[in-house]
Request: fold
Amino acid sequence: MDKFRILQIHIYNFKGFKELSLDLSSNSFTILGGKNGFGKTTLFDAIELVLSGSIKRMSQYVTNADKRYNYNGKPLVYDCSIQTVYVEILVELESGIYWLKREAMVEDIKNPIDFSIFSTLYIRPNIDKVEYAITKDSDILPSSIIKQYKFLHYLDQEECTAFLKSNEKSRNELVTKLFRTQNFDNDLSKMVDCKAKLDSIIITNKDRLENIDRKLNILRNAGTLEGDLEEIEYIPLTKTLPEWDKENPKLNINQYLELLSENGLIDNIRYFVDNNNEYNKYKIAKYLAPYLDDENSLTLAQYVHYKNKRYEIILFEEYKATLERLFDDFDIYEIRQFSIERYKSLSYFVSNEALTLLTEKVNAIKDFYPTCTSVQQEYTQMLSRRESLIKSFDSIKLDNKSKCPLCGHVFANAEILIAEIAKQGESFKQISDTLTHKLMSLYDDLKKYYKTNILDPIISIIKNENLSQEVVDSVKNVTIEKFVKDVEIKWNVKFNPQANIEETQNYCKTLLTSLTKSYDATIDYARLDTFYEEYREIIIKENLTHSNITKKRAYIISKWKEYSSKEIQNLSKEREKLLRKYSYCESKSKTIKKIVDQIKKQKRDYIAKLISDIEILFYIYSGRIMQDNYYGRGIFMKNDLKRVLFVSGSYGDDIDVLYNMSSGQLTSIILAFTLALNKLYADVKYIAIDDPVQTIDDMNLWGFIETLRHEFRDYNVLLSTHENNYAGLLRYKASKMGIKAIFYDMQNFREMTL
Reply:
């Protein structure tokens, strides 16, 4: 056991106290009394904060807080106007007596509670005028205080029965943590990791071995290919020399097999040579076939029939683009933009006289248009001036006999003068209307002449020639143009137009049919197509003979045998090396598995023994405390390494006490369990229990006190209770055993602070 004893407690600006000091050095048992709310739990919190750097129950509040809200309060601080808050305890350790302290600036405490600022532990010897220094928890405090304070040394009000109310698996995890199985776990982790790496190597090497065996099997089976290692003439079959056609090819197993296998490349070359004549017939038939159906043959016929009728095609395009809508699209006021020069090509179909007269009619409109426009403009201006003059007359007072301000003629009155002015305006309007009518007559005459002498003759020509957009598209089709030229050159024929489209179409079909030769339909032309498309540009046709193909196959086989002989040697060496590595790793993996199984067994045996120890002591303590237990005995603890059960009655029961015992009884059980754990696993003789008597009855309390004074008489014990009678009873019982005990009424200290 390590020495650990709390001698003094000092808190400043912490929770409900501005400042508080308690001396615990003269006693073994310290009892904190007073009603609820007067600071008993605050002292337990202060000790926990110094020893662990946080207050667990309050940390859980922060974890569960709603993150959508800001919390402005600082519940750890008594007065926020004071700069600092700190707690410190004087402890006696193996190495001496020291003050341990946690401190924070108030302004640094975040909302609502931030324990990170208390992470630094300060230490100083119990000597005046010595400054605090920074230390690590592990450098000064015993192991169980650091790792298991809340489980071994401190039982608070809120978590008194939390352990019992957790599920069976969680209980088991908490219990096993006490057993300090880290060494087992670390060894297991290392062994498992090592085995995983070995297994990965084994799998990889196994795959590589299987791949090598597959290659060796292929190489050995393929060694039966006909041929030998004698020198064979090298003859290239291609211009660009792909790897397989080089004098010293660098090929792998798959490439050699692709070349030499049935329906491989060498077989495809031989197949092409054997069926070249039939393939040419097939290619011709395939090339000509599209233009033998009705649709494509019509397009071809249109091209052939009209390919020499250049002017007719130009006429149709000009007609569709412009002539059909020439004067319909032109506004009368834009007719001056028209020029016959643009339509010179029409002279091939329309007489020069007609075009000349059309030009004259257009020019007549152009010449007359300025006069008409000028009169209209003058008339518009006159109307504007007339309106201004009338407004002037309205603005002055005229006598009954008014004189015209322009000519000086005297009128009977102003109304007659204005009427005469209006009459003159109407005469000018009649002149303008007459000119406009004449312009429109000229334009209508132009349109009638254009339709009768230009447009109708052209439409007649188009109809007689059966011209259409489809025909024009056929004549301009570059694909058909190329096809016609190719056929005429290759077969020395000529596509000649006939009397009409129908006859031309029949003529083209007959011509193409005569060029088509029948071919053997049993040949695999798809296979020939594939070879031809890939090699037609690079093949050396004169070298494609049966003799050369046979030599090429024998040459490749000789190279294959050279390659396979060396490859078998290399692969065999590699296989031997891999096999040794594989066997070694497999052996080590099996050995490690045995070690892992042994470590697991040792861990199970170790835990089982420790649990057995707990079971016995827990049964004794629970029996002592629960003296009024209905079953008349202690509580059994059952553990199968997967779950923890607490059962009453007999060991064979499987019903946990959580289901059949009261809150007071559950509190008694957890008190007994905490005392048993502390007795067995704590490094120091220290235990703190915050108000254990809230829910337990008098008889159980009596058993608890008896257990404390008999089993923990040499312990540093800190208790709290809101019942002063119980405090007095504990002091009395302790004194009878020669145990020093002191009672502090926290109400007095709180009143001093307030």
About this structure: Residues 169 and 642 are 6 Å apart (CA to CA). The two ends are 41 Å apart (CA to CA). Residues 1-142+685-754 form a domain with the Rossmann fold fold (CATH 3.40.50.300). The longest strand covers residues 4-14.
